[in-house]
Amino acid sequence: MPTLSERTYDTPHGPGRIVSRRSDRAWATLVLTHGAGGGIESHDLDVLTRGLPRLGIGVVRIEMPWRTAGKRIAPAPSVLDASFTALVDHLRPRVPMFVGGRSAGARVACRRGRALGAVGVVALAFPLHPPGKPERSRVDELLGAGVPTLVVQGANDPFGAPAEFPPGHGALPLSMVVLPGADHALKVARRADPDQAAIDAALVDGVHAFVRRRVGRDRPSGE
């Protein structure tokens, strides 16, 4: 059965929090952090925390120091990167580690993934550009992750429609899961078809499949 643990650690920018949900038969670990507008309780992070451990993937959620301190405005990217690095350094997974996050947290994961020894990055609702400003693209940041990357994007995300994303480059292809009708929060309207339950299932299935491919597992997901 998955087990939940929570600890607070110091970073160069104040204490941050690590909340882990592990599986007794874990064969991979996914480390996730939140965006600039919310915390680790966001819907998509919660869905993955509940869904992946039963499939053998432990989930660790990183709460940045600014959020732990109760602040409402995220600091500069350099502060986020240093804080994320300091908190991840406290982890000692015995299985392959993936890093990821939602929105601004996905950007952090892309910037720090390779240096932290991750074998893959999971970018949830990657903010390819500010809404209505495609000329301010962050594609170089996305492609600079240095490890294979999965983007999970809502079809109606104003921060970047799925068609705007590149296919990747060289030996580091960019994989994508598109969630029909979903917005930047990876949520759909109340009476949408597919509904939120189906979208949540697609989110878990897509991340699970990406992680399985990266670690070379070909066993059925229920084993």
Short characterization:
The protein has one domain: 3-Layer(aba) Sandwich (Rossmann fold). The two termini are 14 Å apart. It has helices at 43-51, 65-68, 77-88, 104-112, 139-143, 196-215, and strands spanning 3-9, 16-22, 28-33, 57-63, 97-102, 121-124, 149-154, 168-169, 172-179.
SS summary, helix count: 6
Instruction: Please give the number of β-strands.
Output: 9
CATH superfamily: Alpha/Beta hydrolase fold, catalytic domain
What is the CATH top level name? Answer: Alpha Beta
Parts with pLDDT < 50 across at least 5 consecutive residues: 219-223
What is the CA-CA span between the terminal residues? 14 Å
Sequence of strands across the biggest β-sheet: 1-2-4-3-5-6-7-9-8
Task: Please state the CA-atom Rg, rounded to the nearest Å.
Answer: 16 Å
Pfam families: Abhydrolase_11
Protein name: Alpha/beta family hydrolase
GO molecular function: hydrolase activity
Domain KANL3/Tex30 alpha/beta hydrolase-like: 28-211
List the helices and strands and how they pair.
Layout: E1 3-9, E2 16-22, E3 28-33, H1 43-51, E4 57-63, H2 65-68, H3 77-88, E5 97-102, H4 104-112, E6 121-124, H5 139-143, E7 149-154, E8 168-169, E9 172-179, H6 196-215
Parallel strand pairs: 3-4, 3-5, 5-6, 6-7, 7-9
Antiparallel strand pairs: 1-2, 2-4, 8-9
Helix pairs in contact: 1-6, 3-4
